[in-house]
Task: inverse folding
């Protein structure tokens, strides 16, 4: 920041800071320019970006990524005669690096009990 300011012949200094500022970021009183810039500009900007990402955006992205991997997994078995007949066979033939989500789901499916219990 200092190098860019010196190239542009601009004098950058920390503005006056009050002891009890309420409506703006209030960096510590003895701050250098980098700490002041981080506290007043960078951190609020990053907080705004993080708060703008909603859970729905993450859910849509995850569903889209999983659906693509699931479609690839189904396509892998289209031309093969000997398809796995149970979850453990599928798990043994699943590439955990190429299909990590499918691998995890197959692991869960392999350990779930098949029978039901009634009271």
Result:
């Amino acid at each position: 920041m200092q190098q860019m300011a010196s190239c542009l012949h601009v004098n950058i200094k920390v503005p006056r800071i009050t002891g009890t500022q309420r409506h703006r970021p209030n960096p510590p009183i003895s701050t250098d320019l980098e700490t002041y810039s981080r506290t007043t500009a960078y951190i609020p900007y990053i907080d705004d970006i993080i708060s703008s990402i909603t859970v729905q955006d993450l859910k849509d992205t995850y569903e889209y990524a999983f659906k693509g991997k699931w479609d690839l997994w189904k396509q892998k078995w289209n031309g093969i005669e000997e398809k796995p007949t149970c979850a453990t066979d599928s798990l043994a033939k699943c590439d955990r690096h190429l299909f990590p989500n499918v691998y995890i789901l197959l692991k869960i499916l392999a350990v779930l009990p098949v029978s039901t219990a009634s009271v």
Q: What stands out?
A: The chain has five helices and no strands. The first helix runs from residue 2 to 7. Helices lie at 2-7, 33-52, 55-76, 87-93, 100-111.
